[in-house]
Amino acid sequence: MMNNILRILGAWFFSKLRMMGHMFLFLINALYLIFVPPFKFNILIRQIRFLGTKSMAIIFLTGAFTGMVLALQLFYTLRKFGSDALLGPAIALSLIRELGPVLSALMITGRAGSAITAELGIMRITEQIDALYAMALNPIRYLIVPYVVAAMITFPLLTAIFDLIGIYGGYVVGVKLLGMSSGTYFSQMETFVAMEDIRLGLYKSFSFGIIVSWVCCYKGFHATYGAEGVGRATTEAVVMSSVFILIWDYFLGSILL
């Protein structure tokens, strides 16, 4: 009985290890093809519009209410310690270092990452990817590389917008609703927020862009046939991307702290 359990666990572990190896080689191949001409700039612009411009609404909405909730909760917490003047830097540091990169990446994963996986999965089950191979075209260069480069560009930009909107959302609640001084809110922020904090947030958002595009493209590219296979690949892509974002956020934060 114990031997059967160990055999099943071992087979499961090695299957997951094999899948991670395939995913890693897939990423290395995509990153290598970025520097191999010719590059499809027209496709890149289309993917930047899809990942970036069409995600602006959800970034604005999530960023504004995240900043407002932070201001509402932190104000009463800081006031207990007589430090309510530090509301501005507390909101800014929370958004710039952690919440901005993580929440914007999670929102883009739910909106665009799932669509990427579904699109590539449909191309797989309708044999469009096989047709590219038959025409002597590299589908990774044609389909995957523009998504990866677009994610590298759009994730830091959307994170910066998220941070800015969140800070002004906190301003609306802290200054207009709770009666805090406007000058205190921004002057203390300039004192406590350093360039290293901004760099950390940008590094995180850049790496999250690679993670989301990598996982979602891989799952869609290797989707199994049938509608059920595409649905399963989409679900796995969103869940795996979200988990990888949170795990990588911890390790990157502990390394660059």
What can you see in these coordinates?
There is one protein chain. With 257 residues, the chain is an all-alpha fold. The chain has nine helices and no strands. Helix 1 (2-34) crosses helix 6 (139-177), helix 4 runs antiparallel to helix 9 and helix 8 (195-221) packs antiparallel against helix 9. The longest helix is centred in the middle third of the chain and has 39 residues, at 87-125. The model has no long low-confidence stretch (mean pLDDT 88).
Q: What topology emerges from the helices and strands here?
A:
Blueprint lengths: L1 H33 L6 H11 L4 H25 L6 H39 L2 H7 L4 H39 L4 H11 L2 H27 L5 H30 L1
Helix pairs in contact: 1-6, 2-6, 3-4, 3-6, 4-6, 4-7, 4-8, 4-9, 6-8, 8-9
Q: Please state the overall shape, judged from the principal axes of the Cα atoms.
A: globular
What's the alpha carbon Rg, rounded to whole Å? Answer: 22 Å
| Oligomeric composition of the shown chains | single chain
**What is the average per-residue confidence, as pLDDT, rounded to a whole number?**
88
Distance between the termini: 47 Å
Estimate nothing, just give the exact number of structural domains.
1
Largest sheet features? none
Percent helix: over 70%
Keywords:
single chain; 257 residues; mainly alpha; 9 helices; 86% helix; 0% strand
Short description:
The protein has 257 residues and is mainly α.
